[in-house]
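agent> fetching stored inputs for the acetamide docking request
agent> found them:
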Amino acid sequence: MGMKVGFVQFEPLFGEVDRNLERAGDLIMGSDADLLVLPELFNTGYVFTSKEETISLSEQIPEGRTTQRLCELAREKETFIVGGLAEKDNGRTFNSAVLVSPGGYIGRYRKTHLFFEEKVWFDPGDEGFKVYDIGTCTVGIMICFDWFFPESMRALSLMGADIICHPANLVLPFCQESMKTRCLENHVFAITANRTGTEARGDTALLFTGMSQVTGPDGSVLFRGGGDSEEVRTVEIDPKAARDKNVNTYNNLFADRRPGFYGDLVGKNTKE
Ligand code: ACM
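agent> prediction call returned; pasting tokens
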């Protein structure tokens, strides 16, 4: 069955949570998606300057207002939404993303591979990768720099994800092209939702590169957004197209794996 999936691309303003929730809400209300992905840290912005600031802008999941607002929007639009936000939990902070549905909150993911100064502001994710059966398909979540580690998408794909939801705040130029290979080697769809604009705070100035992208299981780019535009875009896909992992009559992407020969890649240091 066909399903409309897409991304919301916009420029969050640092610390302006009310404004960012309103802007994202307006864009979501104007879309016709069954599944929408918002950028990483879409409600707060990205460049934190102290742990105190990170804690003050972080929210509990699912009690916090950002998750609650996303639940309202999902109910009103009858859509599933994945969005990135800063989470606080007993003095710890995580760069997290939530999955919400028309029926309410479903689950969260805490970023596994922290990038750059995120290592100062956030704790590394402690719950690992998870997938969720949402009826029409199975979705998995990874956040931005997780893409740089092929294990992230491989793990989610082996767990049965048809679609990888990928909130992002990309600053390096490699991800969009690399997602073609990530999707091809796992035969899955991916929705990379990136932000736009520049944030200069403290000693750090970052330019975020937009070009959010929906990528198909054959490595094709189904849609790529502009580098600096605010946009919400959807593409119609059949998520079941991700399930046949055969390459030809002899080769299957998963059955042909030889984990016994992969050494440290499997089984060792799994939680460090
Ligand atoms: C990133 O992980 N935000 C580059």
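agent> quick read of the result: The domain at 3-267 is CATH 3.60.110.10 (Nitrilase/N-carbamoyl-D-aminoacid amidohydrolase).
agent> awaiting further instructions
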